[in-house]
Structures are given as structure tokens and as C-alpha cells.
Amino acid sequence: MSFRLTYATMFNPPEAMHQRFDEAMARVSAGLGQCHELFIDGEDCEAADYARRSSPIDSELVLGDFALATAEDVDTAMAAASAAFPAWRALPVAERARLVRKVGDLMEERVYDLAAALTLEVGKNRMEALGEAQETVDFFHHYADDYEQHAGYENALPNDPLEGMVSRNRSVMRPHGVWVVIAPFNFPLALAGGPVAAALVTGNTVVCKAASDTPWSGRLLADCIRDAGLPAGVFNYVSGSGRDVGDALVRHPLTAGITFTGSVGVGMQLLQKMATGPWPRPCIAEMGGKNPCIVTEHADLERAAAGIVRSAFGMGGQKCSALSRLYVHESVASELIERVQEKIAAIRIGDARERENWLGPVVNTGAYDHYAQYIALLKAGGAKLVSGGSQLREGDLARGYYVEPVLAEAPLSHPLWKQEMFLPIVMLHRYRDRTEAMRLANDTDMGLTAGFYGSADEVAWFQEHIEAGVTYANRPQGATTGAWPGYQPFGGWKGSGSTGKAIASFYYLQQYLREQSRTVVE
Ligand SMILES: NC(=O)c1ccc[n+]([C@@H]2O[C@H](COP(=O)([O-])OP(=O)(O)OC[C@H]3O[C@@H](n4cnc5c(N)ncnc54)[C@H](O)[C@@H]3O)[C@@H](O)[C@H]2O)c1
Ligand SMILES: N[C@@H](CCC=O)C(=O)O
């Protein structure tokens, strides 16, 4: 079987992938320092102001100057998207699907260059970066295929049971209009690209905003969409802060719907704003996680340790799916801790461009400072740091935001059990009986992912009782991380998601559409 890259397979890639990534990194690095514009109505648009951005790998490594949109730019982009809507929605299903699929094809040709940019901009290691670039490709293909296979979700219904007249009935699904996509920093390509693909294929036009830390990835997405030949105005890209540009998009009168991916705090505000106004507008909010893992006395501890380390510390814990709470049966806790410690000791931390470094920097100085604050809070609250706890400042590392992975055994009263930290910090509790472990695992306002290691007999109990949208049992590839379009639908329960329908699931695309019942009497 030939190698297929997913987050589950990325640990043993063929040698050629490394070679091609190194070549792409050299190519992309040679082009650093350029000016990156907004993309509105099919054109590059100069901005009134630009932000110079550096890599979290090394603050002296300048990535380029990135446009900061104004409220006026938002207006122009919204007007362009609105003007393009009637013609775009009128295209036949197959034609829109063809164009969306073509964006995916183009991205696939550029997958190594896109990954190199992701490593430079976010600081993720090469396999995480290649994974994200390929995941974005798969979103475009997946949604194009899904929409086409369902023939745009149009269905004929029985004629009314009338005598003397024929009354024909259909259910059709129609797009809403201009769909706003607001992306997070941690998967700036995939979590912009996925919702953009869904909105476009269903016939909406799009204005997309990247996070302040990651404007480059969004602009690279815009380049692929432009080069695939989508009509002007169908896709528009603006970069800038959430407070200014994001808020202007949310409040804009032409905004027909939103897909937001980010923190619970911002997501809840957006949901409220979208519920007010002349009518409620749809808001798909994919939000934070505080993801637990339960390890029972029957678990395969080697599998558990591998999955725990990958999910707690991969990408520096900066995944919504990251493992942050670990509940281990007291009879196996010491042995599991030992195995986790061994694996932490083997982690190479450093410049994410280098093949041997599995753990790169955290994203910015804010995250770096938060790390020190959380460590102080853990210690002050009686937690024992079993591993890690220091920022790394030796040599070249001092120019980036490098921190040690942390395993902290913490009293259950510690407030950090409840707060998403978004850093490589996992808290541990030894439990006596599994009912207590399940109660603790569910004792959070969030419910995104959850992991379990135990006997085959216990898996059904875990699945039945855990309050999470994405679950994994006995998975060494990741206790709580690593969903892939087409394999694991990805969405949160409770405060982690507003819809109960997962990304790339059977029910996802319909959320970008509104139903119209059509009765015609002949
Ligand atoms: N559930 C998921 O699928 C998923 C996936 C990735 C990340 N996340 C979550 O995202 C968070 C990390 O990403 P982040 O730090 O970029 O999140 P964030 O909430 O700070 O920002 C997300 C996006 O919202 C914008 N924004 C901020 N304030 C805004 C406002 N008032 N109005 C409109 N837009 C605004 C930001 O500029 C950014 O583009 C974590 O909580 C993580 O769990 C969730
Ligand atoms: N889809 C990714 C997480 C995305 C959120 O940050 C995973 O499943 O690990």
C-alpha cells in the first residue's frame, strides 16, 4: 500500500517527503520579506497599513509585511462578495464542484511550499505542517465530492393527494449569501480552507479573515483560489485584528452567515451577535477544548504513553484537540508516569525547520509569557511538576518561544483543571474507581475530544458516558488528537461547538444552506 499522509500516519513518512520539504523550505525562505496584500474582487488590494511579522522560530527571521484591513476594506470585500453571489449560486452543481475541486488540485501541487510556510509562520514541525496542508486539500475534495454526490441536496417529494389537479413538491437547499469565515492561528490554512470550501461549493460567496498571527497562510489560500480561476468577488481575503476587522465582518449588514473557529469566549460573543438584528443569522462556532483521557488498570500502558505524549505535546499543545487532563487508575499511575517521562525526555525541542526537532516554539510572546504564568499558578496551587516547567533560553533558542513539555500532578481543586491553556501542559489525577474518573472527565463546560485506554470490554462504557464530540479508544497515534476528513468527523459538544454537527461529517454542508419547499400546481 502506498503511503497516504494523515495525522494518524505522519509519524513514519517516506524519506522522499523529507527531501521535498527541505527543498520547499529553501525555495520559500528565499522569497521571505515580501509585501502581502488583501485580495478583494479578484484583485490584490493595497492596504493603508501593514504589520511586519517574524517567525516564532526566530524573532529575527522576518516573514514579510502583511496588510491590515480597515472597516472600509471590509465594506468593499462584502460588497464584492454580494455582487458575485447571484451568478455564483446560479452555476450548476457540477460546475461549482469542479472549480472547488480545482482549488484542491492546485493546493496539492503546492503542498510542500504551503507546509514550509506553515512551519515558518506557526512554528509547527514539518509533519504537522505537511499534514495541515494535505488536510486542506482533502477538505476541498471532500466537500466537492459530497455536494455533487448529493446533487446539491435537492429531493423530489410525493405529489399532494389531490383529485383533479397535479401538485408537484420538491425540497431544495439554497445558499444564504455572503458567508464570513474567521480562522484561528493554530490551523490557519485548514480551518480557513475547510469552511471556505464548504461555503463556496454550496453556492455562497465568501469573505475570509485570518488570525492576526497568521495572515500569510490565509493569503496563500487566496492565491490558490485565484489561480483556480474562480470568478472575481466569489472569494475575498482580508487580514487584520479580530477586534477591528473581525468585529466589522460580524456586524456587517451583508453578512448572511459565519463560520468561526477559535476560543469559547470570542465564539460565544459572536453567537450572541448573530442571534440579534432583524433576523437570526447562522453561526457555526467551532470552539475550545479541555480534553480528557482516562487510563484504566487494564490499559496497554505503552500505547497509552505514546498517545498521551503525542496529544498533549504535539504542536506545543496548541490544538483544540490537545490532551490537557489525564485521569489514571491509581494502580498503574506510577508506571504510566514513568513511561510518559521517558518519552518526554526523548522529545527534541528546537527550530521547527529541522527534521530532528519534533517540538517547535509556541506561537508568540503572549503564549510564551502565559506558560510562565501557568507554571507559577500550578506550583502555587499545590501541583507537583513531574516533568518540565522551564522556558528554554540557551543559544539560538533565546530568539524564539521554546518551552518544555509539562506533566503536572495537581489537586482537583486547582482552577487550571477548568481552563484551556493551549500550551504543552497536561494535568494528572490518580483515581480509584472509573465512575469517579468519568465524572471528572465530564466536569467541564467543553466537550471536544476525549481519549480512553482500557480493555476492549470497557470501550463501550467509555463511549456511552463521555460527553465529547470526538472520541478515541486505545489509540497510540494520539489520545485525543488527529482527526482527518473522511475518517473522523470533527466537532464539539457543549461549549466546544454550537451545532452538534461535525466538520467533514454527513451533516456538515447542509449547515451552509437553507431549505426551500417548492410546490407547483399544474
Ligand atoms: N473546535 C475547533 O475545531 C477548533 C479548532 C482550532 C482552534 N480552536 C480553538 O481556537 C482557539 C485558538 O485560536 P485563537 O487563539 O486564534 O482564537 P481566538 O478566539 O483568539 O481568535 C480566533 C479568530 O477570531 C478572531 N477574533 C478575535 N476577536 C474577535 C471579535 N471580537 N470579533 C470577530 N473576530 C474575532 C481572531 O482574529 C481570529 O481570527 C482555542 O481556543 C482552540 O481550542 C477550535
Ligand atoms: N483536527 C485537529 C485539531 C484542530 C484543532 O485545533 C485534530 O484532530 O487534532
From TrEMBL:
It holds the Pfam family Aldedh. It catalyses: L-glutamate 5-semialdehyde + NAD(+) + H2O = L-glutamate + NADH + 2 H(+). Keywords: NAD, Oxidoreductase. This is L-glutamate gamma-semialdehyde dehydrogenase. Gene3D superfamilies: Aldehyde Dehydrogenase, Chain A, domain 1, Aldehyde Dehydrogenase, Chain A, domain 2. One of its GO terms (molecular function) is L-glutamate gamma-semialdehyde dehydrogenase activity. The active site is at E286. Belongs to the aldehyde dehydrogenase family. It comes from Agrilutibacter niabensis. Residues 54-514 form the Aldehyde dehydrogenase domain. Its EC number is 1.2.1.88. It is an enzyme of class 1 (oxidoreductase). Pathway: Amino-acid degradation; L-proline degradation into L-glutamate; L-glutamate from L-proline: step 2/2.
